[in-house]
């Protein structure tokens, strides 16, 4: 495969039908370091046709479950074999640190293994008691068909794999579109799928922009399911396009996630240190470019000043730089557009009365921080309120807002006062309060005295405008299946409903 042949159709690598290409930019220095094919609607049509043929006439949907699972496990092994190479590619492409890239590869391997184990451990269907020994009734699950998988730019390999692994485990074929600005590790994954022995046509890839590539995938009449992870505005367009042909749709559309800190969590020095440390992790890992980032700190008023002062002090000491450099803790934003968006939100917050406690500007260049890189200092904005744009809207940058509360009810009200509902955290030493608050939060994942970990065996997704459907867990596999009821009469006889 040459650098410009990053479209994969029917088992073959090819250039875009139009011949168009796109440069991939390293966000650490704003310089191009790779070239990919810039696909269009014609490339999507070819990829969907290949996936359709592979599903309708190919072997994969009819491959025994044990064989499908074995292939997924081989992919997990190949990912570990190439761990350093893929992590480096992810770091240069998305701007994250090399260690974050390694963690992503490990998590992707875990996801492939989990879905392999899940399908192998299933029974042959759910027997339904029809109330008669003459009737055999069973509900079985079959693959949906051709899946259109659209992944975001912040976790390119991870988010693509959360879709690809269950789609393959269920016996589907697919066309995947990575983000046009971070496509390289998805290209690498498709190569590994082929190396693992996946039949031609099962996995297809089109690199290119959301419009026209993603738009055509969502509306295509031969696509049976579309799974999209990304922004709310794009997600609603995908849903509208899919509605015309009544496709199955799964959407993960981000969040504005609260991290609620009660004073009793900070009653000891160890508790205080842990809560502050985790608040930094919640807000600033991968420069805040995380759908589940704890970007809204909601802290009890009695400890607010001490907590925010220490948080701001530590935020100012976060080491920014190129993700591959030693000692760097946080990389750049992914693009010039994302940097400008972050600056806009901070300026808006200050105009609306927020108090800047840390950051709020681009850092000075250094040996590990090129002047042209898309770096922005971790920013803490105090004295925020719900009317501010920075509190209501998803920034997707290293910006943490601070709100305060006095009572448990007020904390819950603030935490739920969002259009989104993806994730949230609760910090308290009171076990009863922890359970009460977690039960009242309208968010798909709630962490108690922790923030950010997920498990491949537990569902991931959100309430409200954070989307519909779930990834990971048994429900993540169910998204890629259709339930079929098979009713067999073992002793058929006339019904005699009609006299004639």
TrEMBL record:
Family annotation (Pfam families): Aldedh (PF00171)
Pathway: Amine and polyamine biosynthesis; betaine biosynthesis via choline pathway; betaine from betaine aldehyde: step 1/1
Record Gene3D superfamilies: Aldehyde Dehydrogenase, Chain A, domain 1, Aldehyde Dehydrogenase, Chain A, domain 2
Domain of life, per lineage: Bacteria
Keyword terms of this UniProt record: NAD, Oxidoreductase
Active site feature: 252
Aldehyde dehydrogenase domain segment(s): 13-486
InterPro entries, per database record: Ald_DH/histidinol_DH, Ald_DH_C, Ald_DH_CS_CYS, Ald_DH_CS_GLU, Ald_DH_N, Aldehyde_DH_dom
Similarity comment: Belongs to the aldehyde dehydrogenase family.
Annotated protein name in UniProt: Aldehyde dehydrogenase family protein
């Amino acid at each position: 495969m040459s650098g410009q042949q990053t479209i994969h159709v029917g088992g073959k690598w090819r250039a875009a039908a139009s011949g168009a290409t796109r440069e991939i930019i390293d966000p650490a220095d704003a310089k191009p370091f790779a070239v990919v094919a810039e696909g269009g609607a014609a490339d999507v049509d070819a990829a969907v046709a290949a996936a359709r043929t592979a599903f309708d006439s190919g072997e994969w949907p009819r491959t025994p479950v044990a064989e499908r699972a074995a292939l997924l496990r081989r992919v997990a092994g190949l990912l570990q074999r190439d761990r350093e190479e893929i992590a480096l590619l992810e770091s240069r492409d998305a701007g994250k640190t090399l260690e974050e890239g390694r963690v992503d590869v490990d998590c992707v391997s875990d996801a492939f293994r989990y879905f392999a184990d899940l399908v192998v451990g299933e029974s042959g269907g759910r027997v339904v008691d029809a109330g008669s020994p003459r009737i055999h009734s069973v509900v079985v699950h079959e693959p949906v068909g051709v899946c259109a998988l659209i992944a975001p730019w912040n976790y390119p390999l991870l988010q693509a794999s959360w879709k690809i692994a269950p789609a393959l485990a269920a016996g589907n074929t697919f066309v995947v579109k990575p983000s046009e600005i971070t496509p390289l590790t998805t290209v690498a994954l498709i190569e590994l799928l082929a190396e693992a022995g996946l039949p031609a046509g099962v996995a297809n890839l089109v690199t290119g922009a959301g419009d026209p590539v993603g738009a055509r995938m969502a509306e295509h009449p031969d696509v049976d399911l579309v799974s999209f992870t990304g922004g709310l505005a794009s997600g609603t367009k995908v849903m509208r396009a899919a509605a015309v042909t009544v496709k199955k749709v799964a959407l993960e559309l981000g969040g504005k996630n609260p991290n609620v800190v009660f004073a009793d969590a900070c009653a000891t020095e160890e508790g205080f240190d842990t809560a502050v440390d985790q608040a930094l992790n919640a807000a600033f890992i991968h420069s805040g470019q995380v759908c589940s980032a704890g970007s809204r700190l909601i802290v009890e008023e009695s400890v607010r000043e001490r907590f925010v002062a220490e948080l701001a002090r530590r935020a100012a000491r976060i080491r920014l730089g190129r993700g591959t450099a030693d000692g760097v803790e946080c990389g750049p934003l992914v693009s010039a557009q994302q940097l400008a968006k972050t600056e806009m939100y901070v300026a808006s917050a200050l105009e609306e009365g927020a108090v800047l406690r840390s950051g709020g500007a681009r850092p000075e260049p250094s040996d590990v921080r090129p002047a042209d890189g898309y770096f922005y200092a971790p920013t803490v904005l105090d004295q925020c309120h719900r009317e501010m744009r920075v509190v209501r809207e998803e920034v997707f940058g290293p910006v943490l807002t601070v709100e305060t509360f006095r009572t448990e009810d007020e904390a819950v009200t603030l935490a739920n006062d969002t259009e989104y509902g993806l994730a949230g955290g609760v910090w308290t030493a009171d076990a009863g309060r922890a359970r009460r608050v977690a039960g009242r939060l309208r968010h798909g994942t709630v962490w108690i005295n922790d923030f950010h970990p997920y498990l491949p065996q537990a569902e991931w997704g959100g309430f409200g405008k954070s989307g519909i459907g779930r990834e990971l867990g048994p429900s993540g596999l169910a998204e890629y299946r259709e339930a079929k009821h098979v009713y067999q009469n073992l002793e058929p006889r006339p019904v005699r409903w009609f006299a004639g």
